[in-house]
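Hey everyone, long-time lurker, first post.

I ran two proteins through the pipeline my lab uses and got sequence/structure pairs for each. Pasting them in order. The first:
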Amino acid sequence: MAGETESGEEKTEDPTSRRLEKAREQGDFPRSQDFGGSMVVLAACIAMYMVGGTFAADMKQIVVSGLTFNSAELSQGFDMPARLGAAIVSGFWAMRWLVLLTIAAALGAALLNGGISFSSSAAGLKFDRLNPLNGLKRMFGSAGWVSVGRNTVKFFLVGAVLSAVLLAQREQMLAIARLPLESMIAAGASLALYVFLAISLVIAVLGMADIPLQRWSFTRRMRMTRQEIRDEMKDSDGRPEVKQRIRRRQREISRSRMMQRVKDADVVIVNPMEFAVAIVYDEQRSSVPIILAKGRGEVAAAIKQLAAESAIPLVEAPPLARALYYSGEVNKPIHEGLYRAVAAVLAYVYQASAMAADMARPRPAVPDVPDELLFDEEGRQMSGGR
């Protein structure tokens, strides 16, 4: 079954990113407990296998040093707390590789097993967990039976591996009993380490197999009904920060597309410090010039830079640049009142491009902008002033 709500509607839809994010904020995300513990045990076994001899020798030296007293110390006295503190520090130093490797294994396992998350709500007291009825539901529910089955498989596999290892080492175990005490302890420790290493490998494999199972179970538990998805969409669309983020992203996409069209322009008309408008005249596309891009401030600077990189002429005409900026829209024809002024600029550009490189360029004519299309820097109409 896909799961049902109290209203009887089935949870058939995959969880949304917002639902998964809210669950993670509450400390609820897919994580295999077996994997983390098995990695720590396996790391400890590997560390003991690699540096176990050095660790045993260091611990032996600490014990011998702590129980050895000379006549001078007995007659003059010594600082027992200082001696104990030095022994504790030496013990921690002897365990440094074991501690560091297990910490690294714990952190690495956490990163591979859903990541590291700190949630205050997860650490808070939840009274529903104290309800015995909820505990019985967890024990006898589908999740409880899956856990029982997993633990049963784990028990039999570990038991089988342990039996196989002990059976393979039975002759060595019998031989240990005939060794001297010190050799017996060393051989017994080596055998025990070998057994723990084999068991930890089995548990690690089971832990890795448990990761996809936990993720599947979590995704199934997080499923939503169609009504829940519709309610979430309504709630998200009404949030001001979401609307602001959507509008910002739309502006970024629109600006990116606009900037890509600058290289197709015939001319960029600029007010040197503030405005820039890219114009194209293509008879097959439109009978009048079209605004490909426009902007002011940083956007205008970017348009001018792209025009310079693409060898597109820049013509300084402040009144015309402001008129085009405030009266036109991107990817739309220019205002009909600016046909004559833009035609004069295009004629100058075509004439200059047809001249040889060593010829002197003509001075551009000042375009005539109608009074009703004269604007100041803030877009306010001017009365004939330039």
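...and the second, right after it:
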Amino acid sequence: MRSGNPALNDSVFSAERSYGGDTMTIQGTVNKTGLTLLILCAAAVYTWGRAVHGQSVAPFMLGGALGGFVVALITIFKKTAAPYTVPVYGALEGLFLGGLSAHYEARYPGIVMNAVALTFGTLFALLAAYKSRLIEVTQNFRLGLAAATGGICLVYLANMVMGFFGARIPYIHESGLIGIGFSVFVVGIAAFNLVLDFDFIERGSEQNSPAYMEWYGAFGLVVTLVWLYIEILRLLSKLQERRR
């Protein structure tokens, strides 16, 4: 069984199963997620403030994006380091998101607050749906989302490679119906990955994974939330462009 989120899947938790000492709990994971998001927000406020005052944020954004990617890889391959790497990941992603958000806000006033509200609204709505079992996480559900998430990653990778040659995939970045439809689809896939994250964190706690996996579970949730927030920003920007 696989999750669309590469950081979370059944094999991760079974491989890290603990047979003694403190174990992973859902509440512990929630606490770690909250702390990581606070660190992320604090870093984002810093680069946001610099951008608002006309100071350069490009080095912080580049360092945050590249550094966050490297730290994410370290976390994935060295899970025992998660209590140390996940807060660093949150700070680095915050530096990047703060500058990115300021850029969008300058072009589309009010867009950031709307994107934040939609991101957390989606998080809590899907959490409620998952806890009440309105959404059943079946094998086909997992496989379908994993395939869709992988397909989106391939599209973005192809677009990045094409960018080196001065080209890009047509339509999907524009504010036409195809571009908006693509963004709606990606937002939906990112949102439903949250359900898989909830499911696998619950499985991890049931399988008595070691306590440091709480940080790893928090990492998986934050990765998905960051992706969802960015995709919502893109969607809202396309909708505003279409109105102009």
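Reply from user beta_strand_b:
Welcome! Quick read of the second one: The mean pLDDT is 90. The CA atoms of residues 67 and 92 lie 6 Å apart.
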